[in-house]
Specification:
The protein has 267 residues and is α/β, with parallel strands linked by helices. It has a single domain, classed as Vaccinia Virus protein VP39 (Rossmann fold, 3-Layer(aba) Sandwich), CATH 3.40.50. Helix content is 37%, strand content 17%. The protein is built from eleven helices and seven strands. It has a seven-stranded mixed β-sheet with strand order 3-2-1-4-5-7-6. Helix 6 crosses helix 7.
Length: 267
């Protein structure tokens, strides 16, 4: 009932898998200053993580505008969207081995049907020294409460598998999956994906996205409150283990014996 009462007028009757959803979400992002403030900070964090590495390929461009902040960005999605130049499957990227300096994604990993397969494919596409940088939902005491009550996507920190089943590009999800892979199943991650080193994990953003209403709910704060909300986020991030709702995750592509041998054969 609470979710229905807070639904944004543009999204109240919109199924998340509706082909119109990216365009509607893009309009909502443009309308909400508090939400744009969050996206601006996410995009700045991704740009910093990528640095001078090029080319950069975005997965799940959806309704976003990262291309405005990263000139030359190659945008993509699993379906046609306003922000995507390419339509492709993240598990079969249309690039040659080692062609990319970086991959970036915002709220996309937890929608992929097989995250383990994706990490192998990303390692194929990104050259050693390159990066995979992403903003994803995170697990904390606070986020468990919020995501299980106010969010439409599944959120299961106890899931045993890194794969999820479903047919919808957005309804198929487990918001806890990034935390499961990087924290709960850290030993498995290191064993099965030695080509990736964890360069940074920065949990945070405990309130601003929620107060902005995201792309499906009404904003709970006026536009003028963006600065106050930002300061409150910074304060709560001192206890990110309890309060974080999202995290910046940065993986760096390692030089492995296999990639070194492949390079030698191409000299």
């Amino acid at each position: 009932m609470l979710r229905r009462a807070l639904s944004h007028p543009l999204a109240s009757t919109l199924d998340p898998d509706d082909p119109r959803a990216p365009e509607v979400h893009r309009a909502i992002i443009r309308q909400k200053r508090a939400l744009r403030d969050v996206y601006d900070e996410w995009y700045a964090a991704l740009a910093d993580a990528v640095g001078s590495r090029r080319p950069v390929f975005e997965i799940g461009s959806g309704a976003g505008y990262l291309a405005d902040r990263l000139p030359g960005l190659v945008t993509s999605d699993v379906r046609a969207t306003p922000a995507a130049r390419l339509v492709c499957d993240a598990l079969a990227l249309p690039v040659r081995d080692g062609a990319l300096g970086a991959l970036v994604m915002t709220n996309a990993l937890h929608h992929l049907p097989d995250a383990g397969t994706f990490l192998h494919e990303a390692a194929r596409a990104v050259r050693p020294g390159g990066r995979l940088a992403m903003i994803e939902p995170w697990v904390s005491s606070w986020s468990r409460f919020v995501y299980s009550r106010l969010h439409h996507e599944p959120f299961d920190p106890d899931a045993t598998a890194w794969s999820i089943s479903g047919t919808g590009p957005l309804s198929t999800a487990n918001g806890a999956l990034p935390w499961i892979m990087i924290v709960r199943d850290r030993q498995r991650f290191e064993r099965e994906h030695p080509e990736w080193g964890i360069a940074a994990v920065q949990p945070g953003w405990p309130l601003r996205y929620l107060l902005s209403g995201g792309v499906s709910l009404r904003s709970l704060v006026p536009a003028a409150a963006a600065g106050v909300c930002r300061a409150l986020d910074r304060f709560l991030e001192r206890r990110a283990d309890s309060w974080a709702m999202f995290a910046l995750i940065v993986l760096e592509r390692r030089e492995t014996a296999a990639t070194a041998a492949h390079s030698d054969t191409n000299v």
